[in-house]
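My main concern about presentation is that the manuscript never shows what a single data entry looks like. The format is easy to grasp once an entry is in front of the reader. For illustration, here is how one protein appears when written out as sequence plus structure tokens:
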Amino acid sequence: MEDIAYTQETTKPQAEDHSEFSFEDELKRQNINTILEIYGEEYLKKIGILTR
């Protein structure tokens, strides 16, 4: 019979690695760039007003 504790230990999900965070950060940058391309100066003005 197999040792359940050992099996569970070896099948635990690994913590998210750094590459996933890099992917998310890159996706955020791309989304911001897309918004700027679509809305341009108008978007920047509105963000400036909101962040005062």
User: Anything to note?
Assistant: The radius of gyration is 22 Å.
